[in-house]
Specification:
By secondary structure, the chain is of the alpha/beta class. It is built from 27 helices and 17 strands. Strands 8-9-10-7-11 form a 5-stranded parallel beta sheet, with helices on one face. The chain has a 3-stranded antiparallel beta sheet with strand order 1-2-3, with no helix packed on it. Strands 4-6-5 form a 3-stranded antiparallel beta sheet. Helix 9 runs parallel beside helix 11 and helix 12 packs across helix 13. Keywords: DNA-binding, Transcription, Transcription regulation.
């Protein structure tokens, strides 16, 4: 069986076409193909199909789609249903061979073409790149409806096609085929009026064909288009090419599109921006780095490499994503990383917090407006729609090497308009919602600090000598903070504000669940508020399940025991637990590859938040002695046993609470 995505979606079983006709089936199959041989989570597929408002029957409908796809892909042979499209923990995986997908063949030929160019084997490069482009049958997935996640993949495919086209034309120019490519390039600049590389190649082709005056006209057309549409001048490379044509130099060459062999880090000379007397201020929006940044060295090394290293067939801008629970230090790590690599981006850095303290996502259109103003664009030239502003920002980035930091992203739909389209720009993203399925070069699910790192951070805030004197108690404080850097800083600030406060006393206060949230709150870290933002995004059934799970005496459970507690089937339980893990109310502490063997555990600070939240919500609905909840079920006054503590009187606990499915 062969799959084709470079154009319209096609599924071929030998000579017989078996492409699904139903739009949703095509959408699911396309997503699985683009994530081939990798697990696609159920929640990702639901988000892709229905966005932020899935129907109540979304899970069962998705399972129906999977069943129908299995019948198509296995040619109705029941025994092979699970071989091609497998059910995995939390999702599905489409398993195919490398040669079954045309995209794999395209990427292989593109990489071979790039490698041949670096070895100056121009004939071979031209052949490989032409063969790669021959696989395309039109716009990528032109007949597939694309949601937020799939749209990002489609955009990436189109960028790859344009990149291959640039490289193939460069190969032709090196081989002296300048007359043959003039017509093609004229068509390309009409279809892509802001794609500067095609203009430069056309100028070279015309010049070498003895049509210098026409090449100069092409430059004037490019300059007029850029100034009128986005308010910027052509890049330094194109301006130098123009000057060489004015001077009647015969050595004009297209700008090199690939780094020389042996280069790893970015070649900052590729896109040097012209400096002039008018523009003296570059965007430099990064917040200051913190002087006592602690730990994370292994993660930092990986992130620096992902953000700055050039890959041979790179056609998309590097994007690194840092995800994690509230207080784990995502923003601090992103800002620290940005300061480490900012010298590789001489044209500036952009920064934006995409979710305010009220939890409302920032408007991408307004973010783009602020950024474009920072590039010295005229206000009157800025379009009103976010889509057009995004195009203008990407056009500006095509001639500049910049670093972008998007902090606390809410969704893929929010950040997609803010991403550059040029491979010489890098984006760093942080998100507490995970953004699972978002395409990026490097994803880091940030873990809490180790005990040693936490103690070092506590010493940096409260004084190393003081911490060394009471190291055992300092370790207890870090444990109660669960290794969260912001919680450790809050504890350190508490110690700094009270120089005579013994660490033993602080550790004893943190050991008391009644006092811990209060003691760890600070102006920089409000645990209750941080988790409250995650809680507000849960659906009512997920909130009910969260309460029921937290009212258990056991802090660890599997799918089966969770389903029994919540009162639902295994599949529904899995969907809910996946969502609660994504929101950082639960974590996975054991998994050996089998779905039924996944072990979940409760995050202690999240447990304290949820317990307090439950008390507040129940108090708002009824009396302290007996509170009505969901169709007349009741709760009695008695505390549940929590992690490491017995039940205590005077607190709320379930008496006979069942989730209404």
């Amino acid at each position: 069986m062969r799959f084709c995505v470079l154009g319209t979606l096609r599924v071929l079983d030998g000579s017989r076409e078996v492409t699904p006709s139903a739009p949703k089936l095509r959408q699911v199959l396309t997503f699985l193909l683009l994530r081939r041989n990798n697990i696609v989570q159920t929640t990702e597929l639901i988000d892709e199909l229905w966005g932020e408002n899935p129907p109540s029957s979304a899970l069962s409908t998705l399972q129906t789609y999977i069943y129908k796809l299995r019948k198509i892909l296995s040619n109705d042979e029941v025994d092979s249903f699970e071989e091609i499209l497998q059910t995995q923990s939390w999702g599905y995986m489409l398993t195919i061979d490398h040669d079954q997908l045309d995209l794999n063949q395209f990427e292989r030929l593109l990489a071979e073409g790039v490698a041949a160019l670096k070895r100056n084997e121009t004939e071979m490069a031209a052949k490989c790149l032409a063969e790669a482009l021959s696989l395309w049958r039109g716009l990528a997935l032109a007949d597939v409806a694309a949601g937020n996640l799939l749209s990002a993949y489609v955009a990436s495919l189109e960028e790859s096609r344009l990149r291959a086209l640039e490289l193939r034309i460069e190969s032709d120019l090196r081989l002296g085929r300048h007359r043959e490519v003039v017509g093609e390039l004229k068509h390309l600049i009409s279809v892509h009026p802001l794609h500067e590389a095609f203009y430069a190649q056309l100028m070279n082709a015309l010049h070498r064909s003895g049509r210098r005056w026409e090449a100069l006209e092409v430059y004037q057309r490019l300059r007029a288009t850029l100034v009128e549409e986005v308010g910027i001048e052509p890049s330094a490379d194109t301006q130098r090419l123009h000057q060489s044509l004015l001077s009647e130099e015969t050595t004009a060459h297209p700008a090199k599109l690939e780094p020389q062999a042996g280069q790893g880090r970015r070649n900052t000379a590729v896109i040097e921006r012209p400096r002039n007397a008018v523009r003296t201020l570059l965007p430099a929006q990064l917040p200051p780095d913190i002087w006592d940044f602690t730990g994370r060295q292994s993660s930092i090394n990986d992130l620096v490499a992902a953000a700055t290293m050039t890959e041979p067939a790179a056609t998309t801008p590097p994007t690194v994503l840092i995800a994690g629970m509230p207080g784990v230090g995502k923003t601090a790590l992103a800002v620290h990383l940005a300061h480490l690599i900012k010298r590789d981006f001489p044209d500036g850095q952009f920064y934006c917090t995409l979710r305010g303290s009220d939890g409302e996502p920032a408007d991408p259109g307004q973010v783009l407006y602020n950024w474009l103003i920072a590039t010295d664009m005229y206000t009157k030239k800025l379009p009103s729609s976010a889509e057009e502003r995004s195009k203008m920002f990407r056009s500006w980035c095509s001639a500049h090497r910049v670093l972008i930091v998007l902090d606390n992203a809410a969704s893929a739909a929010q950040i997609s308009p803010l991403l550059p389209g040029s491979e010489h720009c890098t984006t760093i993203i942080t998100s507490r919602s995970g953004l699972y399925g978002f395409p990026c070069r490097k994803r880091l699910d940030l873990a809490p600090l180790t005990l040693e790192e936490g103690v070092r951070l506590l010493g940096a805030v409260a004084g190393r000598q003081r911490i060394e004197r009471e190291k055992g108690d300092a370790q207890s404080v870090v444990r109660f903070c669960e290794g969260l850097p912001l919680a450790v800083r809050a504890a350190g600030a508490r110690l700094t504000a009270s120089p005579t406060l013994p660490l033993r006393t602080l550790a004893a206060r943190l050991a008391d669940p009644e006092l811990r949230l209060k003691e760890l709150n600070s102006t920089d870290f409000d645990i209750y508020h941080s988790f409250d933002l995650n809680y507000q995004e849960l659906e009512p059934r997920e909130r009910s399940a969260l309460w029921l799970l937290y009212l258990r005496r056991s802090t660890r459970f599997n799918l089966k025991s969770a389903a029994e507690t919540v009162g639902c089937d295994i599949d529904t339980s899995e969907t809910i637990l996946t969502r609660l893990v994504s929101a950082h109310f639960l974590r996975i502490v054991g998994y050996n590859g089998a779905r039924d063997d996944v072990v979940y555990a409760i995050n202690e600070l999240a447990h304290l938040y949820a317990e307090k939240k439950l008390e507040n919500e129940l108090a708002e609905r009824g009396t302290p002695d007996e509170v009505s909840l969901d169709a007349g079920e009741t709760t009695a006054i008695e505390a549940p046993a929590g992690p490491g503590r017995p039940a205590a009187p005077g607190r709320l606990v379930r008496r006979d609470l069942r989730w209404n499915n």
